[in-house]
Design brief:
Elements: H1 14-28, H2 35-46, E1 51-57, E2 63-71, E3 82-84, H3 90-95, E4 100-102, H4 104-109, E5 122-127, E6 135-140, H5 148-161, E7 179-183, E8 189-191, H6 193-198, H7 210-214, H8 222-229, E9 237-245, E10 253-262, E11 271-278, H9 288-301, H10 305-320, E12 324-331, E13 334-341, H11 350-354, E14 356-357, E15 360-364, H12 369-377, E16 381-384, H13 391-394, E17 400-408, E18 411-420, H14 428-465, E19 476-483, E20 494-501, E21 505-513, H15 518-536, H16 541-554, E22 561-569, E23 574-580, E24 586-588, E25 594-596, E26 601-602, E27 616-619, E28 624-629, H17 631-634, H18 641-654, H19 660-668, E29 677-684, E30 692-698, H20 704-718, H21 725-742, E31 747-754, E32 757-764, H22 785-792, E33 795-801, E34 804-812
Parallel strand pairs: 23-26
Antiparallel strand pairs: 1-2, 1-6, 2-3, 4-5, 5-6, 7-8, 7-11, 9-10, 10-11, 12-13, 12-18, 13-15, 14-15, 16-17, 17-18, 19-29, 20-21, 21-22, 22-23, 23-27, 24-25, 24-28, 28-29, 30-31, 31-32, 32-34, 33-34
Helix pairs in contact: 1-2, 1-5, 2-5, 8-9, 9-10, 9-14, 10-14, 15-16, 20-21, 21-22
C-alpha cells in the first residue's frame, strides 16, 4: 500500500504538506547563496521532475536567461540557456503569465523549432510571479507525466522562488571588489559598480553584455582582449592582461584584468571569473614591450594574410605616427601587396599606380633593387629623409622610410614598408620594436598563407561537389547561393540541385549532411548524385526520397542527412513537396505575401530504414517565388529556427523578385557564418506556350498496333497537323510493336505537340534500352525498326521511367 497517500484536514496530500514545510524552511533563509538551487531541488523530490530550472529576464527585457538549474544536464532535455521574451517558447509564455503543461504529443508538434525537448518528455512552465519576473521550467521522464499532486508541488516551488527572484544580470553585490563573472557561452557578465565606474558606465545603462564593455576599449587592444573572453582561444587556468579603455577626454585609461577560466561542471557552461583594476598609475604611456605583446596577441588570432596585415598596421602605424604602411608577400621574385594603409591609390607613388591590379599593386622584385638587396641581406633597413632611393621607394617615405624583411624560417615571406612624410627621428627603442615586429609578422604571414591555400583548396573541393551552373528552365528562373562557414577549414555538408525532368517538370533539392568534415562532404556528394539518379529514373518524389534513405542506411556511416525535395510541374503551376527532417519551403506570392509551407515531414535520411515520406501539394501562381534554405541561414545563438524562418519570410516579402540574383544576395547579406549556408530560389513565371498532350494505354490484343495508329491519326487531325502524318504513324507502329514483342506489362503511348515539334513516346515496363544494329543482312527478318525510326524522325532516344523506360522520337513540323 505504498502508493496510498493520506490527506490532511483541508484535503491536501501528505506529499503536498511535506513540500510546503520543506520549502518554507528553505525560503526563510534569504541570505543563503544556495537558496534558489535548494528550492529547485524540491521539484525533483516532491514533483518527480528529472530537470528543473528558473529563467529570469535580462536587464533590457529582451531575453530570458537560465539563472539556476538542477537535475540531469539541460542538453539531455533539449533545453536552451536563453529564450526571447517575445517568442513562442513555453518559457516565454509562462513569463507572460500563461502556464504551460505539455505532453509528448505537444512537444513533437514543436520539435522542429528546437525550443522544447524532442523526446518523450512532459514539460511544465510556470510563472514565478505575476508581473513578468521569469518562470519555472520542469521536465519529467515518467510515463504519466505530472499528476495533480505534482502540479501542486510545482506551484509551491514557483511561489517559493518568487521572492526574491535572482536577476539574470546581478548588480555584483556578491562579487569581490572589482570582481566579474562571465558566462563563456552567452557572453553575459556580472560586474560590480566599481568596474562600471572604470568603464565610465552608469549601472542603470549597463545591459549585462560583455560586448558593451569591449566596445569601450581601444581598438588596438581588442584582439588581445578577445583572445581572453572567447572560449575558443582559452584553456582552463589563470589569465592576466592589461588593456586600455577610451575616455570622454584625455588619453585612454589603463586597466589590468586578472581572471581564471573555471569549468562549469556537467551541463553547465564554463565561466571566466576575476577582477579588473585601474593600472593607469603604473605607467604613463604604452611601452614598446607592450606593443610587441599586443602584436603577438593579435597575430595569434590572425587567420588570413589580410588579417596579418591589418594586425601589423594596427600595432605600428599609429604608435609610430607613420603616414603609410604597405605589407607585401614575396611570391616567385614578385612582390604582391596585400595591405595598403591608407588604401587610396592617390596616397602612393605614381609608379605603383601603373602596376595597380584591381585593388592591390604587384611588381617584379628587380624593379626595386634597394628593396631586393635588403631582402637578400635579411635585416631591417632604415633610410632617413633625403636618402638617395629609387622613386618607387622614395615617394613612400620622403621624411623617412623603414623596410622590414619578414623572415619565416630559412626564407623570406615578404616585406613591410613604413613611410613618413615629414622628417622622422628613429630612436633605438623604435628600431628594436621594428625588428621584433618583423619576426612576429613573418611567422604569422607564413601560417596565414598556408591557411589561405588550404582554405582555397577546401573551397575548390566544395565547389566541385555542387552544380557549376543551374539549367535554363521553361517558365521559371532559378538561382542558388552557397556560403561556406568561416569557422575552421572543414568541408561542409550543405548542398542544392536543380534537376530538369521530362514533361516540363523540374525537381528542386536542398539538403544538409550532419557535421563538418571530409566525410560529411563526401556523403553530401553521394546523396546529391543518388537523388539526381533516382529523380531522372522517373520516380515520384516520395519514392526518390525513400530510395535515398535506404541507400544511406546501407552505407557504413554514422552520419545522417536532411533534405527537402520539390517536384514542380511547369505547365500546371503545381508542385509536390517531400521533407526529410529539413526546413519547409517558403513561398512568396506575386502580391508580396509569404507563407511557410505546411508540408508534412518525415525523419532525416539514414535514421529509420522503413520510413514514410509523405507528399504535400503546393500551388504556384505566376510570380510565385519558392525559397529553400538550410538552417545556417535562419538559426543562430540569438534566435531559434521559428524566429529565423519568420525573419527570412519577412525579408523575402520585402524583396523585388524581378531580380532574383539580387534577392539571393540580400538574403545572405546578414547571414551568420558559424555554419554553412545554402539557398535556392525559383521564380515561377508560367509557360508562355503550353504543350498539347494526349495519352493512350495500349492493350495487348492482336489489333493493338492498329488501335494506336488510329488514336494517333485522330489526335493529330484534331490538332490541325496535316504534314508528316505518315512518318509519325510509321514510328508509332515500330515503337509500339517493339514494346509489345520485347517487354511484358503495361505499355503507354504519349503524344506531345509544342512550338512546332511533335514528340511520340512509348513507355514500357522493361529497363532494357533498344540497341541500334550495326549491320543487317538481306536475309534478316528483324532489327530494322530502330533504323526506320532514326531515318524518318529528327531525333530519337530513350529515358528511364519508374520501373522501366520510354522510347521517343521527335518531328519538326513543316508550316
Amino acid at each position: 500500500m505504498a502508493n496510498v497517500v493520506s490527506e490532511g484536514a483541508d484535503g491536501r496530500s501528505t506529499r503536498t504538506l511535506r513540500a510546503e514545510g520543506a520549502l518554507r524552511t528553505i525560503a526563510a533563509d534569504q541570505e543563503s547563496p544556495e537558496r534558489v538551487r535548494r528550492i529547485l531541488e524540491q521539484a525533483l523530490v516532491f514533483a518527480g521532475a528529472a530537470f528543473a530550472a528558473v529563467y529570469t529576464p535580462s536587464a533590457d527585457g529582451e531575453l530570458l536567461y537560465l539563472a539556476e538549474s538542477v537535475g540531469v544536464p539541460r542538453t539531455m532535455c533539449g533545453v536552451r540557456d536563453s529564450y526571447p521574451t517575445a517568442g513562442r517558447a513555453p518559457v516565454a509564455e509562462a513569463h507572460r503569465g500563461r502556464p504551460a503543461w505539455l505532453g509528448p504529443e505537444d512537444l513533437a508538434a514543436q520539435a522542429q523549432s528546437r525550443r522544447v525537448p524532442s523526446r518523450d518528455f512532459f514539460l511544465a512552465a510556470l510563472p514565478v510571479r505575476d508581473d513578468g519576473g521569469g518562470c519555472l521550467l520542469a521536465v519529467s521522464e515518467r510515463t504519466h507525466g505530472f499528476d495533480a499532486d505534482d502540479r501542486v508541488c510545482l506551484g509551491l516551488v514557483a511561489d517559493a522562488i518568487a521572492s526574491p527572484v535572482p536577476a539574470a544580470t546581478a548588480d555584483g553585490a556578491d562579487l569581490p571588489p572589482g570582481g566579474f563573472n562571465l558566462a563563456m557561452d552567452t557572453g553575459r557578465v556580472r560586474v560590480g559598480v566599481d568596474i562600471l565606474e572604470l568603464f565610465g558606465l552608469d549601472p542603470d545603462d549597463f545591459d549585462g553584455r560583455v560586448e558593451t564593455l569591449l566596445s569601450l576599449t581601444v581598438p588596438e587592444d581588442l584582439p588581445s582582449l578577445m583572445s581572453v573572453v572567447e572560449a575558443d582561444h582559452m584553456t582552463i587556468g589563470d589569465r592576466e592582461l592589461e588593456f586600455r579603455v577610451l575616455q570622454p577626454a584625455g588619453p585612454p585609461k589603463w586597466l589590468r584584468l586578472s581572471g581564471r577560466l573555471v569549468p562549469g561542471g556537467e551541463g553547465r557552461p564554463a565561466r571566466l571569473v576575476g577582477t579588473v583594476a585601474d593600472a593607469s598609475t603604473l605607467r604613463s604611456d604604452i611601452t614598446d614591450v607592450a606593443r610587441v605583446q599586443r602584436l603577438a596577441a593579435a597575430l595569434a588570432t590572425a587567420v588570413t594574410v589580410r588579417d596579418v596585415g591589418k594586425a601589423v598596421v594596427a600595432a605600428l602605424r599609429r604608435p609610430l605616427r607613420a603616414d603609410r604602411i604597405a605589407l607585401a608577400e614575396l611570391e616567385n621574385d614578385r612582390l604582391v601587396v596585400t595591405v595598403l594603409d591608407p588604401p587610396e591609390p592617390e596616397a602612393w607613388p605614381e609608379s605603383w599606380r601603373t602596376e595597380w591590379r584591381t585593388e592591390w599593386p604587384d611588381a617584379p622584385l628587380r624593379t626595386v633593387p634597394t628593396l631586393a638587396a635588403a631582402l637578400r641581406e635579411g635585416r631591417s633597413r632604415i633610410w632617413p629623409a633625403g636618402s638617395p632611393l629609387e622613386a618607387a621607394l622614395a615617394e613612400v617615405g620622403p621624411g623617412g622610410l623603414a623596410m622590414l624583411p619578414l623572415p619565416a624560417g630559412n626564407r623570406m615571406a615578404g616585406a613591410c614598408l613604413i613611410g613618413w612624410d615629414t622628417p622622422h627621428d628613429f630612436g633605438a627603442d623604435e628600431r628594436a620594436l621594428l625588428t621584433a615586429a618583423a619576426g612576429l609578422a613573418g611567422q604569422a604571414l607564413m601560417r596565414a598563407r598556408a591557411f589561405d591555400a588550404e582554405h582555397e583548396l577546401v573551397g575548390m573541393l566544395q565547389r566541385q561537389l555542387l552544380p557549376r551552373r543551374l539549367p535554363r528552365l521553361p517558365g521559371a528562373v532559378a538561382v542558388a547561393r552557397y556560403l561556406p562557414s568561416t569557422a575552421g577549414l572543414e568541408l561542409g555538408g550543405d548542398w542544392y540541385d536543380v534537376i530538369p525532368l521530362p514533361d516540363n517538370h523540374v525537381a528542386l533539392v536542398i539538403g544538409d549532411v550532419q557535421g563538418h568534415s571530409a566525410g560529411a562532404a563526401t556523403l553530401m556528394g553521394q546523396m546529391r548524385t543518388a537523388l539526381r539518379a533516382y529523380a531522372v529514373e522517373g520516380h515520384p518524389p516520395d519514392v526518390v526520397v525513400s530510395h535515398a534513405n535506404r541507400l544511406l542506411m546501407d552505407m557504413e556511416t554514422d552520419l545522417f542527412a536532411t533534405c527537402c525535395y520539390v517536384d514542380v510541374d511547369m505547365e500546371e503551376g503545381s508542385a509536390w513537396c517531400v521533407r526529410a527532417g529539413h526546413l519547409p519551403p517558403v513561398l512568396r506570392h506575386a502580391d508580396g505575401r509569404t507563407d511557410i509551407a505546411e508540408a508534412e515531414g518525415g525523419p532525416p535520411l539514414g535514421v529509420v530504414r522503413q520510413s514514410d515520406f509523405p507528399m504535400s501539394p503546393l500551388r504556384l501562381q505566376p510570380g510565385t517565388v519558392v525559397a529553400l534554405t538550410t538552417d545556417g541561414l535562419v538559426e543562430s545563438h540569438e534566435a531559434d529556427i521559428d524566429e529565423g524562418m519568420d525573419r527570412f519570410a519577412r525579408q523575402l516579402s520585402a524583396a523585388d523578385p524581378a531580380h532574383l540574383g539580387q534577392v539571393a544576395d540580400a538574403l545572405l547579406g546578414k547571414a551568420p557564418r558559424s555554419d554553412d549556408v545554402a539557398l535556392l530560389l525559383l521564380r515561377y513565371d508560367g509557360m508562355a506556350v503550353r504543350p498539347l498532350r494526349e495519352s493512350w494505354s495500349v492493350w495487348r490484343v492482336p489489333q493493338a498496333v492498329g488501335h494506336a495508329r488510329r488514336f494517333t491519326r485522330r489526335t493529330l487531325r484534331s490538332w490541325g497537323v496535316s504534314e508528316d502524318i505518315d512518318a509519325a504513324l510509321l514510328v508509332v507502329s515500330e515503337l509500339v510493336t517493339n514494346a509489345l514483342v520485347h517487354t511484358d506489362g503495361k505499355v503507354r503511348l504519349d503524344i506531345t505537340l509544342v512550338s512546332g515539334r511533335l514528340r511520340l513516346a512509348v513507355a514500357d515496363a522493361s529497363p532494357r534500352t533498344p540497341v541500334k544494329p550495326t549491320s543487317i543482312g538481306w536475309e534478316a527478318t528483324g532489327g530494322r525498326g530502330i533504323l526506320l525510326v532514326e531515318a524518318v524522325s529528327a531525333a530519337w532516344g530513350t529515358l528511364p521511367v519508374s520501373g522501366g523506360k520510354q522510347v521517343w522520337a521527335e518531328f519538326v513540323l513543316r508550316h
